[in-house]
Amino acid sequence: MSKARALSGIQPTSGSFHLGNYLGAVRQWVELQDSHDTYYCVVDLHSLTSGVDPVKLRESTLASVAQLIALGIDPEKSTLFIQSHVHAHNQLGWVMECLTGFGEASRMTQFKDKSAKSGSDRTVVGLFTYPMLMAADILLYQPQYVPVGEDQRQHIELARDLAIRFNSSYKDIFKVPEGYILKAGAKIYDLQDPTSKMSKSAESASGLIELLDSSTANTKKIKSATTDAGREVKFDSANKPGISNLLTIHSALSGRSIAELEVEFDGKGYGDFKGAVAEVVTSHLDPIRERTNELLQDKGELTRLLKIGAEKAAAVADETVRLAYDALGLIPRG
Ligand code: ATP
Ligand code: MG
User: Fold this and answer.
1) How far is ligand 2, taken at its centre, from the CA of residue 263, in Å?
2) CA of 199 relative to ligand 2 center, distance in Å
3) Amino acid 117: pLDDT
Protein backbone atom coordinates (compact mmCIF):
# COMPACT_ATOMS: atom_id res chain seq x y z
CA MET A 1 0.00 0.00 0.00
CA SER A 2 1.33 3.45 -0.78
CA LYS A 3 2.13 5.73 2.13
CA ALA A 4 -0.22 8.56 3.09
CA ARG A 5 1.13 11.93 2.04
CA ALA A 6 2.05 14.77 4.40
CA LEU A 7 3.00 18.29 3.39
CA SER A 8 4.04 21.44 5.18
CA GLY A 9 5.91 24.71 4.65
CA ILE A 10 7.97 27.27 6.51
CA GLN A 11 8.72 30.91 5.71
CA PRO A 12 12.27 32.15 5.25
CA THR A 13 11.31 35.48 6.81
CA SER A 14 14.40 35.63 8.96
CA GLY A 15 17.82 34.01 8.82
CA SER A 16 17.04 31.64 11.65
CA PHE A 17 14.12 29.49 12.65
CA HIS A 18 13.01 29.78 16.27
CA LEU A 19 12.18 27.19 18.85
CA GLY A 20 8.43 27.42 18.12
CA ASN A 21 9.04 26.45 14.51
CA TYR A 22 11.05 23.45 15.63
CA LEU A 23 8.85 22.20 18.46
CA GLY A 24 5.51 23.10 16.87
CA ALA A 25 6.29 21.92 13.37
CA VAL A 26 9.64 20.70 12.06
CA ARG A 27 10.14 18.06 14.71
CA GLN A 28 6.94 16.37 13.54
CA TRP A 29 8.06 16.71 9.92
CA VAL A 30 11.18 14.69 10.70
CA GLU A 31 9.18 11.97 12.47
CA LEU A 32 6.73 11.61 9.60
CA GLN A 33 9.42 10.93 7.00
CA ASP A 34 9.54 7.18 7.47
CA SER A 35 5.83 6.53 7.72
CA HIS A 36 4.62 9.06 5.11
CA ASP A 37 5.31 10.35 1.63
CA THR A 38 6.53 13.76 2.77
CA TYR A 39 6.70 17.10 0.92
CA TYR A 40 8.34 20.05 2.67
CA CYS A 41 8.64 23.47 1.22
CA VAL A 42 10.34 26.78 2.04
CA VAL A 43 7.56 29.22 1.27
CA ASP A 44 9.58 32.17 0.02
CA LEU A 45 6.61 33.84 -1.72
CA HIS A 46 4.89 34.16 1.67
CA SER A 47 7.88 36.08 3.01
CA LEU A 48 7.19 38.86 0.50
CA THR A 49 4.18 39.80 2.62
CA SER A 50 6.52 41.30 5.18
CA GLY A 51 8.65 43.36 2.80
CA VAL A 52 12.00 41.62 2.85
CA ASP A 53 15.42 42.80 1.73
CA PRO A 54 16.48 40.84 -1.43
CA VAL A 55 19.99 40.08 -0.18
CA LYS A 56 18.60 38.83 3.12
CA LEU A 57 15.85 36.81 1.46
CA ARG A 58 18.38 34.97 -0.71
CA GLU A 59 20.49 34.18 2.33
CA SER A 60 17.64 33.22 4.59
CA THR A 61 16.05 30.96 1.98
CA LEU A 62 19.22 28.89 1.70
CA ALA A 63 19.70 29.07 5.47
CA SER A 64 16.15 27.70 5.87
CA VAL A 65 16.92 24.77 3.60
CA ALA A 66 20.16 24.10 5.48
CA GLN A 67 18.36 24.26 8.84
CA LEU A 68 15.70 21.81 7.68
CA ILE A 69 18.39 19.34 6.65
CA ALA A 70 20.34 19.94 9.89
CA LEU A 71 17.15 19.30 11.88
CA GLY A 72 16.74 15.95 10.18
CA ILE A 73 14.82 16.46 6.93
CA ASP A 74 16.48 14.03 4.55
CA PRO A 75 16.21 15.08 0.88
CA GLU A 76 16.43 11.39 -0.08
CA LYS A 77 13.31 10.60 1.93
CA SER A 78 11.34 13.84 1.54
CA THR A 79 10.63 16.08 -1.41
CA LEU A 80 12.31 19.29 -0.22
CA PHE A 81 11.79 22.36 -2.38
CA ILE A 82 11.33 26.10 -2.64
CA GLN A 83 7.81 27.38 -3.29
CA SER A 84 8.75 29.91 -6.00
CA HIS A 85 10.39 27.12 -8.04
CA VAL A 86 6.98 25.54 -8.60
CA HIS A 87 4.75 27.94 -10.53
CA ALA A 88 1.62 25.93 -9.83
CA HIS A 89 1.42 27.57 -6.38
CA ASN A 90 0.53 30.93 -7.93
CA GLN A 91 -1.69 29.33 -10.55
CA LEU A 92 -3.86 27.60 -7.98
CA GLY A 93 -3.52 30.49 -5.51
CA TRP A 94 -5.63 32.70 -7.77
CA VAL A 95 -8.30 30.02 -8.03
CA MET A 96 -8.42 29.83 -4.22
CA GLU A 97 -8.78 33.62 -3.97
CA CYS A 98 -11.75 33.43 -6.32
CA LEU A 99 -13.39 30.83 -4.09
CA THR A 100 -12.92 32.72 -0.81
CA GLY A 101 -15.41 35.22 0.53
CA PHE A 102 -14.13 38.63 1.58
CA GLY A 103 -15.75 38.28 4.99
CA GLU A 104 -14.31 34.80 5.39
CA ALA A 105 -10.79 36.09 4.69
CA SER A 106 -11.35 39.02 7.07
CA ARG A 107 -11.94 36.60 9.93
CA MET A 108 -8.43 35.13 9.81
CA THR A 109 -6.94 35.94 13.20
CA GLN A 110 -3.35 35.92 12.01
CA PHE A 111 -4.16 38.66 9.49
CA LYS A 112 -5.89 40.64 12.21
CA ASP A 113 -2.94 40.26 14.59
CA LYS A 114 -0.21 41.01 12.07
CA SER A 115 -2.04 43.91 10.42
CA ALA A 116 -2.91 45.41 13.81
CA LYS A 117 0.81 45.41 14.63
CA SER A 118 1.95 47.19 11.48
CA GLY A 119 -1.13 49.39 10.86
CA SER A 120 -3.37 49.29 7.78
CA ASP A 121 -1.18 51.62 5.69
CA ARG A 122 1.77 49.27 5.97
CA THR A 123 -0.26 46.10 5.54
CA VAL A 124 -0.13 44.67 2.02
CA VAL A 125 -2.96 42.87 0.24
CA GLY A 126 -0.69 39.80 0.04
CA LEU A 127 -0.95 39.40 3.80
CA PHE A 128 -4.72 39.32 3.43
CA THR A 129 -4.64 36.71 0.66
CA TYR A 130 -1.81 34.66 2.20
CA PRO A 131 -4.18 31.97 3.59
CA MET A 132 -5.51 31.38 0.06
CA LEU A 133 -2.00 30.93 -1.31
CA MET A 134 -1.40 28.62 1.62
CA ALA A 135 -4.51 26.64 0.72
CA ALA A 136 -3.07 26.25 -2.78
CA ASP A 137 0.34 25.23 -1.34
CA ILE A 138 -1.42 22.42 0.45
CA LEU A 139 -4.11 21.27 -1.97
CA LEU A 140 -1.72 21.01 -4.92
CA TYR A 141 -0.10 17.97 -3.35
CA GLN A 142 -3.29 16.17 -2.25
CA PRO A 143 -1.89 15.45 1.22
CA GLN A 144 -3.78 13.64 3.91
CA TYR A 145 -1.92 15.42 6.75
CA VAL A 146 -0.54 18.90 7.24
CA PRO A 147 1.79 18.98 10.26
CA VAL A 148 1.77 22.56 11.63
CA GLY A 149 1.83 24.47 14.90
CA GLU A 150 -1.32 25.49 16.73
CA ASP A 151 -1.22 29.01 15.20
CA GLN A 152 -2.05 27.55 11.78
CA ARG A 153 -5.23 25.74 12.81
CA GLN A 154 -7.56 28.33 11.28
CA HIS A 155 -5.66 28.38 7.97
CA ILE A 156 -5.86 24.60 7.69
CA GLU A 157 -9.58 24.84 8.32
CA LEU A 158 -9.85 27.33 5.45
CA ALA A 159 -7.90 25.00 3.13
CA ARG A 160 -10.33 22.22 4.01
CA ASP A 161 -13.35 24.44 3.39
CA LEU A 162 -11.97 25.55 0.02
CA ALA A 163 -11.28 21.97 -1.03
CA ILE A 164 -14.83 20.95 -0.12
CA ARG A 165 -16.24 24.03 -1.88
CA PHE A 166 -14.30 23.38 -5.08
CA ASN A 167 -15.17 19.69 -5.06
CA SER A 168 -18.89 20.32 -4.66
CA SER A 169 -19.06 23.30 -7.07
CA TYR A 170 -16.94 21.86 -9.91
CA LYS A 171 -15.50 18.39 -9.67
CA ASP A 172 -14.13 16.14 -6.98
CA ILE A 173 -10.45 16.98 -7.47
CA PHE A 174 -9.02 17.80 -4.07
CA LYS A 175 -8.32 15.58 -1.13
CA VAL A 176 -9.62 17.27 2.03
CA PRO A 177 -6.53 17.47 4.27
CA GLU A 178 -6.34 17.15 8.03
CA GLY A 179 -4.21 19.28 10.33
CA TYR A 180 -1.64 17.34 12.32
CA ILE A 181 -1.23 19.44 15.43
CA LEU A 182 0.39 18.32 18.67
CA LYS A 183 -1.73 18.34 21.82
CA ALA A 184 1.06 19.50 24.11
CA GLY A 185 3.79 21.97 23.23
CA ALA A 186 2.32 22.95 19.87
CA LYS A 187 2.53 26.61 20.74
CA ILE A 188 5.63 28.29 22.10
CA TYR A 189 5.32 31.86 23.33
CA ASP A 190 7.57 34.90 23.10
CA LEU A 191 9.96 35.07 26.08
CA GLN A 192 9.40 38.80 26.58
CA ASP A 193 5.67 38.76 25.90
CA PRO A 194 4.52 35.28 26.94
CA THR A 195 0.94 35.84 25.82
CA SER A 196 1.99 36.24 22.14
CA LYS A 197 3.34 33.37 20.10
CA MET A 198 7.04 33.26 19.31
CA SER A 199 7.17 34.60 15.75
CA LYS A 200 9.86 35.23 13.12
CA SER A 201 8.19 38.47 12.20
CA ALA A 202 8.13 39.76 15.82
CA GLU A 203 9.14 43.42 16.20
CA SER A 204 12.04 42.49 18.41
CA ALA A 205 14.15 39.34 18.54
CA SER A 206 14.62 39.63 22.30
CA GLY A 207 11.84 37.13 23.00
CA LEU A 208 12.88 34.58 20.37
CA ILE A 209 15.12 31.58 20.87
CA GLU A 210 16.75 31.42 17.48
CA LEU A 211 18.23 28.14 16.34
CA LEU A 212 21.28 29.79 14.80
CA ASP A 213 22.00 32.22 17.62
CA SER A 214 24.97 31.64 19.93
CA SER A 215 24.55 29.76 23.20
CA THR A 216 25.55 32.89 25.06
CA ALA A 217 22.84 34.97 23.40
CA ASN A 218 20.13 32.35 23.95
CA THR A 219 21.16 31.82 27.57
CA LYS A 220 20.93 35.56 28.17
CA LYS A 221 17.46 35.70 26.60
CA ILE A 222 16.20 32.81 28.70
CA LYS A 223 17.62 34.32 31.89
CA SER A 224 15.86 37.60 31.17
CA ALA A 225 12.56 36.00 30.14
CA THR A 226 9.51 37.74 31.60
CA THR A 227 8.12 35.92 34.63
CA ASP A 228 5.59 36.77 37.31
CA ALA A 229 6.35 38.19 40.74
CA GLY A 230 5.95 34.81 42.50
CA ARG A 231 8.59 32.16 43.27
CA GLU A 232 6.87 28.90 42.47
CA VAL A 233 7.78 26.89 39.38
CA LYS A 234 4.26 25.72 38.52
CA PHE A 235 2.38 25.35 35.24
CA ASP A 236 -0.45 27.90 35.20
CA SER A 237 -0.84 29.51 31.80
CA ALA A 238 -3.40 32.08 32.98
CA ASN A 239 -1.43 33.46 35.94
CA LYS A 240 2.12 32.37 35.12
CA PRO A 241 2.42 32.46 31.33
CA GLY A 242 6.19 33.02 31.35
CA ILE A 243 7.03 30.14 33.70
CA SER A 244 4.51 27.89 31.92
CA ASN A 245 6.17 28.61 28.59
CA LEU A 246 9.60 27.77 30.00
CA LEU A 247 8.20 24.54 31.48
CA THR A 248 6.76 23.63 28.07
CA ILE A 249 10.12 24.28 26.40
CA HIS A 250 12.10 22.28 28.95
CA SER A 251 9.66 19.38 28.83
CA ALA A 252 9.50 19.29 25.02
CA LEU A 253 13.29 19.14 24.73
CA SER A 254 14.23 17.03 27.74
CA GLY A 255 11.34 14.59 27.37
CA ARG A 256 10.54 14.95 31.08
CA SER A 257 6.97 15.60 32.14
CA ILE A 258 5.90 19.00 33.43
CA ALA A 259 4.79 17.38 36.71
CA GLU A 260 8.29 15.93 37.18
CA LEU A 261 9.88 19.31 36.52
CA GLU A 262 7.57 21.01 39.02
CA VAL A 263 8.73 18.57 41.69
CA GLU A 264 12.41 18.99 40.81
CA PHE A 265 12.25 22.79 40.99
CA ASP A 266 9.97 22.95 44.02
CA GLY A 267 11.42 25.59 46.37
CA LYS A 268 14.35 26.37 44.05
CA GLY A 269 13.23 29.74 42.63
CA TYR A 270 13.22 31.10 39.10
CA GLY A 271 16.95 31.69 38.74
CA ASP A 272 17.89 28.01 39.05
CA PHE A 273 15.02 26.97 36.84
CA LYS A 274 15.95 29.41 34.07
CA GLY A 275 19.56 28.18 34.24
CA ALA A 276 18.33 24.61 33.70
CA VAL A 277 16.13 25.64 30.76
CA ALA A 278 19.08 27.45 29.18
CA GLU A 279 21.22 24.33 29.59
CA VAL A 280 18.65 22.07 27.92
CA VAL A 281 18.07 24.51 25.07
CA THR A 282 21.71 25.22 24.26
CA SER A 283 22.76 21.57 24.41
CA HIS A 284 20.07 20.80 21.82
CA LEU A 285 20.80 23.73 19.56
CA ASP A 286 24.63 23.66 19.46
CA PRO A 287 24.94 20.66 17.10
CA ILE A 288 22.09 21.95 14.89
CA ARG A 289 23.79 25.31 14.43
CA GLU A 290 27.12 23.66 13.62
CA ARG A 291 25.56 21.33 11.05
CA THR A 292 23.66 24.21 9.42
CA ASN A 293 26.86 26.21 9.05
CA GLU A 294 28.62 23.22 7.51
CA LEU A 295 25.82 22.72 4.98
CA LEU A 296 25.92 26.41 4.05
CA GLN A 297 29.57 26.03 3.01
CA ASP A 298 28.43 24.08 -0.07
CA LYS A 299 25.72 26.15 -1.73
CA GLY A 300 26.19 24.24 -5.00
CA GLU A 301 25.07 21.04 -3.30
CA LEU A 302 22.03 22.73 -1.75
CA THR A 303 21.07 24.12 -5.16
CA ARG A 304 21.43 20.66 -6.71
CA LEU A 305 19.18 19.11 -4.07
CA LEU A 306 16.59 21.87 -4.51
CA LYS A 307 16.45 21.31 -8.26
CA ILE A 308 15.65 17.64 -7.76
CA GLY A 309 13.02 18.57 -5.15
CA ALA A 310 11.40 21.18 -7.40
CA GLU A 311 11.14 18.74 -10.29
CA LYS A 312 9.49 16.09 -8.13
CA ALA A 313 7.11 18.64 -6.61
CA ALA A 314 6.20 20.23 -9.96
CA ALA A 315 5.28 16.86 -11.45
CA VAL A 316 2.57 16.45 -8.80
CA ALA A 317 1.49 20.09 -8.61
CA ASP A 318 1.22 20.65 -12.38
CA GLU A 319 -1.10 17.69 -12.71
CA THR A 320 -3.39 19.06 -9.98
CA VAL A 321 -3.53 22.46 -11.71
CA ARG A 322 -4.34 20.77 -15.01
CA LEU A 323 -7.26 18.92 -13.43
CA ALA A 324 -8.53 22.00 -11.57
CA TYR A 325 -8.29 24.30 -14.63
CA ASP A 326 -10.10 21.77 -16.73
CA ALA A 327 -12.87 21.45 -14.11
CA LEU A 328 -13.21 25.26 -14.07
CA GLY A 329 -13.68 25.40 -17.85
CA LEU A 330 -10.31 26.98 -18.64
CA ILE A 331 -9.27 25.76 -22.10
CA PRO A 332 -5.85 24.05 -22.27
CA ARG A 333 -3.29 25.69 -24.59
CA GLY A 334 -3.40 22.67 -26.86
P1 ATP B 1 6.07 34.55 10.58
O2 ATP B 1 6.07 35.42 11.80
O3 ATP B 1 6.92 35.08 9.46
O4 ATP B 1 4.70 34.11 10.17
P5 ATP B 1 6.44 32.14 12.03
O6 ATP B 1 7.39 32.22 13.15
O7 ATP B 1 4.99 32.18 12.31
O8 ATP B 1 6.87 33.26 11.01
P9 ATP B 1 6.03 30.27 9.89
O10 ATP B 1 7.05 30.07 8.83
O11 ATP B 1 4.83 31.10 9.61
O12 ATP B 1 6.78 30.85 11.18
O13 ATP B 1 5.54 28.86 10.41
C14 ATP B 1 6.27 27.65 10.21
C15 ATP B 1 5.71 26.58 11.13
O16 ATP B 1 6.05 26.90 12.48
C17 ATP B 1 4.17 26.51 11.08
O18 ATP B 1 3.79 25.16 11.08
C19 ATP B 1 3.73 27.18 12.34
O20 ATP B 1 2.53 26.65 12.84
C21 ATP B 1 4.89 26.83 13.29
N22 ATP B 1 5.03 27.85 14.33
C23 ATP B 1 5.29 29.16 14.14
N24 ATP B 1 5.35 29.79 15.32
C25 ATP B 1 5.12 28.86 16.28
C26 ATP B 1 5.06 28.89 17.70
N27 ATP B 1 5.26 30.01 18.36
N28 ATP B 1 4.81 27.74 18.36
C29 ATP B 1 4.60 26.58 17.68
N30 ATP B 1 4.64 26.49 16.34
C31 ATP B 1 4.90 27.60 15.65
MG1 MG C 1 3.60 32.38 10.66
Assistant:
1) 34
2) 7
3) 81
